[in-house]
Amino acid sequence: MKIALISDTHNHIAGVSAVLRILDAEKITTVIHCGDLTRAETLELFQNFTIHHVWGNGDLDAIAYQIVAQSCKPSSTTSEVYSGIIAEKRVAALHGHQSRLLTSLIENGNYDYVFHGHTHRKRDELIGRTRVINPGAVGGMLRSLRSCAILDLKSGDLSSFQID
Question: What percentage of residues in the chain have a pLDDT greater than 70?
Fold first, then answer.
C-alpha cells in the first residue's frame, strides 16, 4: 500500500494543488500530513482522501480542523500525534516542533515509521529499528525545494516529488 507524506503546506494552495495532481496520478487514497496546514480551509482540499493530520505550531484552530476532518473520508483524523497501524506497519506522525516528543517516539522502538515535518527539510534515516521520514515542505519559508513523498509501506520504497 502506498501512502502520501506531506508537511508544512502553510496554506500554499498552488503547492497543495500540485500535490493533489501527483496523488491522483499515483492513485493514492491515504495521506499523512505532518502539520502546519495553517488554515482549516486547506484541509478541505483533502476531502477525497483518508487523511491523518497532526497539529503543527502554525495550526492554531484545532476545533476547526476536527470539524473539517469529519468531511473527509471515514477514519480521517486530526490530533497532536497520530499513532496507528497502516498496511501492517506501526506508524506515528507528529509535526516535530516538540523535539523531546519526536525523540521519544523514535527511540522507544514501538514504530516501524515515524513521520514528521517542521524543519522544511527532507529526511530519511534509520534509527534503531525505526525509519524516520520528513517529506520536506510544500509551502512556507523554504530551506530546500518544495516537496512531498510517497511511501510504499510493503516494499519500503520512498519516492520524493518536487513541487513547482
Answer: 100
Tell me how far apart the alpha carbons of residues 161 and 20 are, in angstroms, rounded to a whole number.
12
Which residues constitute the domain of residue 26? 2-162
Residue 98's Cβ-count burial label (10 Å; 0-12, 13-18, 19+) is middle
Enclosing H/E stretch for 4: strand 2-6
For 28-59, b/e burial (b = at least 16 CB within 10 A) is bebbbbbbbbbbbebbebbeebbbbbbbbebb
Place of cell 484541509: 43
Residue 142: how many other CB atoms lie within 10 Å: 16
CATH for 87: 3.60.21.10
In the chain, how many domains are there? Answer: 1
> 3-class SS at 93?
strand
Average pLDDT per block of 10 residues along the chain, 164 residues long: 97 96 97 96 96 97 95 95 98 97 97 97 97 96 88 97 91
63 contacts: CB under 8 Å, gap ≥ 6: none
Q: Could you report the per-residue pLDDT of 26-51, keeping only the tens digit for each?
A: 999 999 999 999 999 999 999 999 99
